[in-house]
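A further point concerns the way the authors explain their paired sequence and structure data. Since the whole study asks how a given chain folds, the encoding of that fold should be made plain. A single example would do more here than another paragraph of explanation. An entry of this sort, consisting of the sequence and the corresponding backbone structure tokens, reads as follows:

_____
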Amino acid sequence: MTRVAILGATGYTAVELIKLLLRHPGVEITTLTSREETAPINQVHPVLAGRLSLPLENLSAKEVASRADCVFSCLPHAASAAVIPEILDAGVKVIDFSADYRLNSPEVFKKWYEIDHPDAARLGKVPYGLPELFRSEIVPAPLVANPGCYPTSAILPLWPLFQVKMIETSDIILDSKSGVSGAGRKPKLSLHYPECNESISAYGIGSHRHTPEIEQFLSSAAGAPVQVIFTPHLTPMTRGILTVAYSHPTRTVTQTDLIETLREFYANESFVQVIDQLPATKDVAHTNCCQITARVVNGRVVTISVIDNLIKGASGAALQNFNLMFGYPETTALL
């Protein structure tokens, strides 16, 4: 059995991770931490009643490492990188849910997160946890940076098209709509039911922190700098992301060309489904799947993707990474 600890175990992604791990035949959950809660986890998340009653504890990194073979860090940015080095030094593997190790540059991190990076020397050396793209790097890694939810929904449909130079690197528009759970569990006025119900609103235009992550990895796919206009929206649903990307083709392409290129690239992937029809968030809710399709409209390439932001956009991807890092079949507890 692989012993697992979860740092910051009270949030939405953490409880989704716990539910997945409880289905995993090779996992023993030994430790759950919280800086604010001390109750058993099944009191904080009643969905776990009768399934897991571990207490939430405020532990040091050293104490956590002594109880685990793998640590999932669900702490906020900067807080995660402040404790991960000590866990790694103890020989324990880590999957980090925060943005702390996704970006390659400390300067870019400081610009977007407005804080000096606590572990800057590791930036650019940590595999990005999208198994469909970086599987060979993830397998031997002691630390993996779990992707952001919006970046997952943007990178997966566009990466193959950049790889074959099918779309231009400039004038790319990303229009994303996310359920309210993507904003986390901590109460905020804008997430209060009367504020967000029966309403849809854009936010973070030109300033959303997932922008540099998206641009960094799309640039890697294209082999040239990629810039995007990324506009996220808050929609009155609990979970799910729909991302529509608009780009210019480098040559004349048809809908069939696009779908065949995507289908060939993801032909052997269990969790990416290239489909002919238009996808909807309900089609992937509570799954680790990403559904993708494409169209050509007035000379532009339009790709549409949907994911569950809490699963493929967070906890499911983390479990994919865990399975790769510890030698389990990649689909274990995910299908």
Q: What stands out?
A: The chain has a mean pLDDT of 96. The domain at 149-309 is CATH 3.30.360.10 (Dihydrodipicolinate Reductase; domain 2). The chain has eleven helices and 13 strands.
